[in-house]
Amino acid sequence: MFTVDGFLVGYTLAADSDFHAVIRNAAGETLIIEFPNPGCLQGSKVIEQAVAARTRFLQLIGTLPTGRFVHVRKLIRVRVTGVVFFDRVHGQDGVAPNGIELHPVIGFEGSEVSSAQ
Predict the structure, then answer these.
(1) Are 22 and 31 in contact (CB under 8 A)?
(2) Cα 47 from chain centroid?
(3) pTM of the shown model
(4) What residues make up the domain containing 20?
(5) 35 and 57 in contact (C-beta within 8 Å)?
(6) Within 10 A of 49 (CB to CB), how many other CB atoms are there?
(7) Domain assignment of residue 102, yes or no
(8) Phi and psi (nearest 5°) for 73?
(9) Total count of domains within the chain
């Protein structure tokens, strides 16, 4: 498990009903994080954590993702814990150069950064 801090860039709903989100660090480097469809996690040891993380993500963005990538206009700081997964690079929004992702996300915290900070 790895935990990373960053800022939410955007999100979309994938064809498999996973939520794909992109985060970036202060240097502008991006990483994909994935919140799996709970139906795909049956029997998993992390199902409760993954469902809770997905729920917190939905609460933060305030809407259900669609198949269109939505760029977040607010500055939202996040802390994400997940399993490292190397996906093949195939033109995904926000993909890291080596294809690394956190998938599944099993811990998620986020908050809007006030303009005073």
Answers:
(1) yes
(2) 16
(3) 0.92
(4) 2-112
(5) yes
(6) 19
(7) yes
(8) -90, -20
(9) 1
From first to last of its 117 residues, the chain has per-residue pLDDT tens of 999 999 999 999 999 999 999 999 999 999 999 999 999 999 999 999 999 999 999 999 999 999 999 999 999 999 999 999 998 888 888 899 899 999 999 999 999 997 544
Residue length of the chain: 117
Please check whether residue 117 lies inside any domain of the structure. Answer: no
Is 85:103 a contact under the CB 8 Å cutoff? yes
Neighbours of 9 (CB within 10 A): 21
Q: d(Cα 30, Cα 101) in Å, to the nearest integer? A: 10
73's CB contacts (< 8 A; 6+ apart) are none
Q: How far is CA 55 from its chain centroid?
A: 12
CATH of the domain at 69: 2.40.50
